[in-house]
Specification:
This protein is mainly α and 75 residues long. It is built from four helices and two strands; from the N terminus they run αααββα.
């Protein structure tokens, strides 16, 4: 995980992520999510990662698929 993100937001675990086709698309989505209520964000995280597992492996730098994605066979 990027060091600046950890420092600025006190990030300890990666529990949710989204892939986007472009940086502009990702930024638009991030801005929309910032306006969401916390409960909506929690629901979004729990659709992908209901157990809030840490999806980042610091040894390899790899990001795992969320448990819900694995169960759906997306991986």
């Amino acid at each position: 995980m990027a060091r600046f993100c950890q420092d600025e937001y006190a990030v300890k675990h990666l529990v949710y992520y989204e892939m986007h086709r472009s940086m502009d698309e990702a930024i638009r989505r991030e801005k929309r999510l910032k306006d969401w209520r916390r409960a909506w964000k929690v629901r979004l995280i729990e659709t992908m990662n209901p157990e809030w597992c840490d999806l980042f492996d610091p040894e390899t730098g790899e990001i795992a698929m969320g448990p819900a994605d694995v169960a759906r066979g997306s991986g």
